[in-house]
Amino acid sequence: MSAVVYAHSVPGRDEVLWEPLAAHLTKVADRAERLAATFGGQELARVMGALHDIGKARDAFQSYIRGQGTSVDHSTAGAVIAERNYPAPYGRMMAYGIAGHHAGLANGCIAGSGLSSLKDRLAAGAATLLPVRCLTPDLDIAPTSVALAAPVLSEGFTHEFSAAFLIRMLFSCLVDADRLETERFYADLLDEPVERGCTLTVTDLRDRLNAHLAQFEGRTSAVNSLRAEVLTAVRARADDEPGLFSLTVPTGGGKTLSSLAFALDHAVRHGLRRVIYVIPFTSVVEQTAAVFRDALGSDDAVLEHHSGFDFGPADGSAPDDEGKDGARKLRLAAENWDRPVVVTTAVQFFESLFSNRPSACRKLHAIAGSVVILDEAQTLPLKVLRPCLEALRELARGYRSSVVLCTATQPAVTTDAGFRGGLDRVRELAPDPPDLYRRLKRVTVSTIAEPVSDEALAERLLNEPQALCIVNSRRHARDLHRRIAVAEGARHLSTCLCAKHRRAELAAIRQDIKDGKTVRLVSTSLVEAGVDFSFPVVYRAMAGLDSIAQAAGRCNRNGELPELGRVFVFDSPEDEGHRPPVELALFAQTAASVLRAHDDPLALDTLRAYFRQVYWLRGDEDLDAAPVGEGPDAIRGILNALRLHRRKHDFPFADIAKAFRIIESPLVPVIVPYRPAGEPDAVPRLLDALRHAPADKTGGIARALQPYLVQVPRSARAGLLKAGAAECIRSGEFGDQFVALVNGDLYHPDVGLDWEDPTFRRFETSIF
């Protein structure tokens, strides 16, 4: 065996070109230290980097990288060294990340999600001996000094959530440092430089935004004047110390650009690194990212990261001006959020914060030292609300982040609003929110006393040249659209349309409204958060009061009507089967009760009464109710699970990751054959590539197919497969990961995928 111990081999190249283990450990330790310096965890991260691959010094691993024998565990050895040589709880905290830097963070003492527990791995690795020739970098850190190197655990913050959060953040630093250094080694060796990062800083972007906003100066309409007033007031607060903020501005008051302006000003003033904009719905992420790119004059500075974003086709063809290299840069930036502005979904943001997977956690350290804008905080699901609030609180108090709760209603999750266990010391940025509401009042909201049938609702829509109707389910949207489909201007929006189709429809509807054409739109709630439609008349099926407020934001949005816009809230008859889904029924019932007792449904005191019933009067157990673990030993609530395991820091990371879901959805994807007008037919080409690509080369194809997915109930997809209306591609290798629609007649140009009758064929006529 060679006297040199290697971390990375290069098949077919002389060993002199391979990377020595000591060099790799030193470089990862250095980089992890820099990444963790933002939140004061640099000494812990440096130790983790120096120990993470120490197990590669074993003779069995050195034989493996020379093509002899099979792969062996190289992560446990460093975890054992950390646990043995550093004081509690720091040795154990570092051991989690070292042991899991490839497979993921494990449970502390019980196996879960296919991972052995950390306790079992440490016990099994205790007897592992490293050869004498193993050279490690000089850590220059005394074990006792590490106990002073975690400021986020000092000053009374040593409770279990802080400890678990720090473990995950340190894990993020280690994983990213390891991946970046490995990438750098091979890129240098092959002379194939990897282009990462962005040359523009937050200061550059602040200056660009100023230039963009200057073009709106002098616009004197009442709404524009108020937006300018809000912008000025919000920017004046940028010098405030980092922490928790709220921005309560009614829909149409310009809170998107005002919040971005505050974030950039605040970041420049306090040396923060990036702006992360977190949005409830994917469709709104796309729109907001486009607004930011336009306002900042840069595509490269803005990373749009969500499950439906197309990073470019796998075959390298150029889908747009960025081409192959641009698509690759976006994919690389999405790995660790290496951009000054990130626009993402609540699913991506919060599920990453509670994940145990290296790929999901890799970007978490990028949140430290950033401004996080959380759009519509009240949309967070009740089941995981308290863990989400704890994560926001932890970012603000321990990781140099400022968090802005950006809402059109009110900061419903604060202690000032009466929410026990909510966020405290939240500073309002908007100037006098009640006065803003009065001055921005552009609609009247009326509740229709008697249930309204679909037939009567269709008649009402047909009596209006431009009208929007928002309902609570995809089925209701489709059924109602059928009644008006032959009429002029009939439109439909729901997640039965794939993301690519929705984008095209949104653009076409905006243009028709702008041109004064007839538009009668039936939609699900996907239009309610940030979609900049403005209709003179809006109908809204009974829902939560915040949803009704958002629906009202699509009515007379810019105050362009000579009179107030009209919003009507209605119920459907019981016999039509269009009552709110179970998960929405509580909010609808509460809203109906509150509306009976208040004259103005959108006034802040009305909304406060609504949230008091929805959030504040519920027990803590309802706001942290995800079951952690399985069977009779499952623990109700993520915070409770952490609390029960705090004594020995045996946190159940794998079980928490499995339990935490922003969207509880039994839905599964189907690839649909949508083809935008005037564009090449991409889906057949991608499916053909998927059928023939090596199994380890399908990731790019899967990403390129994401804009063509429709999520359906598992039973519906099973029905499509059974009827031969869909096929499972390479099921022997990928299971049911790739299911493609074969019967293209089931995907309609108006309502998207209709799976009710899998045998339907359109032939020469359409049922619509």
UniProtKB/TrEMBL annotation:
Annotated Helicase ATP-binding domain residues: 236-428
Highest taxon, organism lineage: Bacteria
Domain HD Cas3-type stretches: 14-180
Annotated PROSITE patterns: HD_CAS3, HELICASE_ATP_BIND_1
Molecular function via GO: ATP binding; endonuclease activity; helicase activity; hydrolase activity; metal ion binding; nucleic acid binding
Pfam families given in the database record: Cas3-like_C_2, DEAD, HD
Keyword Magnesium: no
Keywords per UniProt: Antiviral defense, ATP-binding, Endonuclease, Helicase, Hydrolase, Metal-binding, Nuclease, Nucleotide-binding
Gene Ontology biological process: defense response to virus
Keyword presence, Disulfide bond: no
SMART domains, per database record: DEXDc
Family of the protein in this entry: In the central section; belongs to the CRISPR-associated helicase Cas3 family. In the N-terminal section; belongs to the CRISPR-associated nuclease Cas3-HD family.
NCBIfam families on file: cas3_HD
Name by which UniProt lists this protein: CRISPR-associated endonuclease Cas3
Organism of provenance: Azospirillum ramasamyi
